[in-house]
Amino acid sequence: MKKSIYNNELRLSSDYYLLYNTFTSTFLVVKQGLYTKYASLSIPELSKQCPSFYGQLLQAGCVVDDGEDEVEKLRQRMKKVDGNPKQYSLTVNPTLNCNFSCWYCYENHAGPSKMSADTLDRIKRHITQVASGKMLKRFNLSFFGGEPLLYYKEVVRPLLTHFQATCSAQGLRSSVGFTSNGYLLTDAMIEELKTFGVSSFQITLDGNKSLHNQVRFPFAGADSYTRIVDNVKKLLKAGIYVVLRINYTAANLASTKDIAQDFADIPQESKKNIQVNFQRVWQDQDVNGTSLSDTLVECMEAFEHVGIGVSKEIMDQVWNSCYADRANQAVINFNGDVYKCTARDFIREKRLGVLEADGHIAWDEEKMQAREGIRLAKEVCQHCRIAPICGGTCTQRVLDSGEANQCIRGLKESGKDNVVLNQFYYHVIKN
Question: At 91, is the secondary structure helix, strand, or coil?
Fold first, then answer.
């Protein structure tokens, strides 16, 4: 028997240590004396001197058979999760145009990009094909862009009508979500979206009213903040779940406490339908070496103080891998080009496939082959003690990282310790 390569050992206090196996997601809090034996004795000696503790280690996966290939076990787990044939996720970009022009947006909004009737029909055929799959149990549809609501009547509504009818005919469970700036929502649209079974929206704010309106506006001097906040409240009242994404920078973070107060008046029953997700604008990372962690905690607590939940950075990228890592997933652009990841430019050179006239996706075999199994390809990832929760990050980040054999997240041992302590806090202490 041997110790698992996925064990994490951290000192909690002068009297206690934490043992955490990331493959089994098991935590053991161990007294110092027992930990000393664990650290100094061989496994056979430990099993004889501390049989009860040894049994706990076995059950927790902290001790495994000598011949066990833990890396391969992790690979197989990732392959099973990412290859799940029972669920399909389709993202559609009705357009790449937007009614806003945020300074940090990575997409090119130049030129008209409205989905044609032909591409719309191809997507309908694709939906019909996918829904008829014998193993499929759930179909998830989402809209992205650009601003997808720009062409609600011409593109979104026809797709929702077809999707709803198709899933109903096939007896499939389904969900529909939008990533939108929320500005174009109307009362009538929200009521109609409810009838289509739309379950969620992700809507972004950029600081408090004053700072947000300097970033997101349809024309100079417009107050988009008030309109978006009102629309979010209307979605909540309609029972539609909202992820309120707050894009923050060193300049706007402190102001986000004001946003919490602007949502403090929503009814208690609506608060269960909203979650705040803080995301730092990537162009602002490490500006002047400024540390924002303390301020970020204060801003999160401002929302929790008024009863609104906040997404926490719990690493779980194997069981809940990125949507783009899943085999049964596609992003179809307005022009019929097909991708996997939405966090990249939708340019011809980066497409991974094409939607054909019959609704079939013709994938670029060479590009898709390059993506297969790459998440755990780096040697530094395979034996990393947090690999079963990190998963080597996502496929796209691995591809972008090049061939260097180094942690893609940039984590040193102390950084990994912080990840483990964060898991322990939210999975054990807070719960």
Answer: strand
